[in-house]
Specification:
By secondary structure, the protein is mainly α. The protein has eight helices and four strands, in the order H-H-E-E-H-E-E-H-H-H-H-H. It has one domain.
């Protein structure tokens, strides 16, 4: 299983390579949430074990927050991802990376997992409840892996024995 800071560094570097722009922190957190959700959709399990909290502007990882530097990416020690996990992260960036941070924030506000973490809190009231991974798994059910590029993921493994 990956560490969230490793996934964050991969997303940071891949986004920079593809866009020639540094990713802002809000966008990074939202893309990481979508990476986790897509991992559930494609593999039926989380990519990383660390949690998100339900903050005002969507899911946030405290681990990523403590290691993020807008100029250098993750300043904590990081490691490379498995090829399968890197593939999922790249596809999330290709699907959602062209949206601005506020659009991704609004998308994350449609997620059951974020909504459940905010029960009883007003729209501008700070919160730090853990987003339940079971709720992220529920959110993943609306992802259709055979739409767009996700179908290619399964094609790669078509000939393998199950």
């Amino acid at each position: 299983m990956e560490k969230i800071v490793d996934v964050a560094q991969y997303v940071y570097k891949y986004y920079l390579k593809e866009t020639d722009e540094k990713i802002d922190e809000m966008k990074l957190h939202k893309l990481l949430y979508f990476v986790q959700r897509e991992s559930y959709a494609l593999l039926g399990k989380p990519m990383f074990n660390e949690d998100f909290e339900g903050w005002i502007h969507g899911p946030v990882s405290k681990e990523v927050r403590s290691c993020y530097d807008k100029d250098h990416g993750m300043v904590c020690n990081t490691h490379s991802l498995s090829e399968d996990d890197a593939y999922i992260a790249r596809n999330v960036i290709e699907e959602y990376g062209h949206y601005d941070s506020w659009y991704l924030r609004n998308l994350s506000h449609e997620e059951i997992s974020w909504k459940n973490s905010r029960i009883g809190l007003g729209p501008e009231q700070p919160g730090n409840r853990i987003i339940d991974k079971k709720d992220i798994e529920v959110d993943s059910r609306k992802v259709r892996p055979f739409d767009s590029t996700w179908g290619m993921f399964y094609d790669e493994f078509e000939d393998e024995e199950v």
